[in-house]
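re: ur question from yesterday

yeah so i grabbed the chain u mentioned. its 269 aa long if i counted rite. heres the sequnce exactly as i have it in my notes:
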Amino acid sequence: MEASGRRCIPSCQHVIDTTGTTTTPSRRALLLPSGSNLGPQRGPSRKPLDMNIPEEDQIAIRELVQDPSLLDTLLSGIELAHVTLNARALASQIATNTELSEEKSKQYVVMMMNMCRTFRHIDESRTSFDAALAKSLNESELGSGSPVQVADLSKALDRILSNESIELWAKAHEIWIAHPRLFSKAQILSELRPIFANDSAEARAMIAVHQLRILSEEPGPSDMTREYFFALDIRDLRQLKGVVDRALEKHDSLKTIASSAKLSMLEWE
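ran it thru and got these structure tokens back, copy pasting raw so excuse formatting
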């Protein structure tokens, strides 16, 4: 038996951390200031904002800035979609409602969500943020032939950062990954083990052994993945099943409460 968490953004290839080092976890933080922390920087020692942007995100930003009608289409598709925490599912809805492909839609959505998260985290004015972003885009290899104008970038950012669906998506994702340990995947390995009599190679009985393997993601500078193993017997399995069944019932109850309050329930499905 195997179960996987669905909180991870599918197919995210890079993360830029606060030191500018490229790693490959499943959650991606885009546009982080190079050589600085995410917290506010105040006082005379404050450094100019310097951004490192993965190539796929540079491409997405450039396409939306250089073609306002493309951004129109994308935002229209988002407004018609039921906002979900699953980027692939949201992209699928956008692709259904527009002429954009699902893969492109996902690339744009993830980039915009992370753009929103980044701006919320840093203590910078929009003017400074826009200028630093344009500088980073234009100094990259992709920017040598077609520089991005700050004015055009600012117009696109005005629409992206003010979009309520993207903002809610970004905030909900932040709340989720704020936990010290995130469930990623579970697997139960089951086997029969023989019980031998004393001073005999003949098996006299068998015992069923179940081993629960849990993979967890632990957010931090290195975004570590850890493994945990637990031995279970039939009583443990029944207890575990009861706990999960009860949690599913409570989840359905919480959905009903949210619906009664006319609030959207953001989920990973």
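noticed a couple things. The two ends are 20 Å apart (CA to CA). also Residues 234-260 form the longest helix (27 residues).
anyway ttyl
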